[in-house]
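Hi R.,

Here's the chain you asked about this morning:
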Amino acid sequence: MPGGRRGPSRQQLSRSALPSLQTLVGGNLGNGTGLRNRSSNVVGLSALPLSALITPEPVRHARIPELPLDSSLLFEFLLFLYLLVALFVQYMNIYRTVWWYPYSHPAASTSLQNFHLMDYHLAIFITVMLARRLVWTIVSEVSQSSGGSLLRYVALIAARLSLLTMCGWVLCWTLVNLCKNHSVLNLLFLGYPFGVYVPLCCFHQEGGKSQTPPADCDYPADHHQQTDLTESPFFRPRDFLFLLRENLREQLSSPPHMPTHTCPPHTHSHTPELIRAEVEELKSDFNRRIKEVLFNSLFSAYYVAFLPLCFVKSTQYYDMRWSCEHLIMVWINAFVMLMSQLLPPSYCDLLHRSAAHLGRWQKLEHGSYSNAPQHVWSESTIWPQGVLVRHSRSLYKAVGAYNVALPSDVSHARFYFLFHKPLRILNLLIWIESSVVLYQLYSLLRSERWNHTLSLGLILFCNYYVLFKLLRDRIVLGKAYSYPLSSSSLGLKSQ
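And the predicted structure, written out as tokens:
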């Protein structure tokens, strides 16, 4: 009313009645951090850390069941069987005959294949190379099961030596015969994958600082030795031979011991340093597994589908398009089979748990959120969701519930993107395998040659088994991750 006492305006009410965000979160974090006002000056308000004033939302992990996984010996046997079928299919496409012609026709044949044009030494050499993982797995299984009486131990050692000696003798015998019958250029194709493996897998080491893994996280003992070895900028000859031997052993052997996420997620011992150290170890282990998958899948496709084409005589005709298509299909199928074995659901769940504790930062444009409180990023603070921090002259916003990642580290952002959704890798494998199966079914319906129909029928049976396992895991895990998590089950199976 005119002449009466004016009440506080709406803007004054909003400024006086509600506490400011600076009062809620505090400013000085005790380590050089603080809030920024509109003029971007750091204003220290309290000595309490941000994590003591704002408690991040607890990270809740889903409980997934133990899904059946093929043993190393069974998987290597199935992979070897698939590669043998693919090798037979490639030889059938190259050396097929027109057996249905009458005998009076010049191109008539009494068999399905031109066996006299095949190089049996090359076929045996390829078979031995494809069986290297199976042989080494058998030797490893026998070595691990050794025990009991001295006679049994001696018998196992003799059987292992006999198996390795026989494989080595067959390999040398085939190489000697191939050297007699083929040129030097063709012989160079035999060892080309090994020439690529040494520089890519032995010389290439991951850069960056190597952090000490947390004591609560279980990793192999030899992994620490190999990590310490790769820190030095130059390798001595003895170290290079050791690194080469370790890489060959990893390439030949079955997957090593899987690291475990045993760090308590909601205690003071689970510091940001331990989380980042665990992520670094998991990132190195994941990269090693991907490197193994890529090399073995390309190795299999090279020896199964490409090497037989290099030894075909110039007078021999074959369908180049179909052979190249078979090469791509073998590589994709071997890649999916190795990925599903080396990256099982339990391992993907482990990566998902670590990504949930790591968090992610979203880089913002300059000038945005100028009126909101901004903090200076601290490596010893667990940042809650939605907080704005300054790091390396850039502004970042916390995306995850827990955020301990380095804002400017692209590898941390990539790790969170790949694994914050636990079914991302499984969905990708299902999409790849489903696309291959659908394309092969389409090709089967349109095929007009008997060798194409037989080839697609044999390969499809192998792909159905792989697709069935992927879909089974997707259905079970989809229901497990979609199950609502209650606060009472927060600590269940979080380690």
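DSSP finds 17 helices and six strands in the chain.

Let me know if you need anything else.
M.
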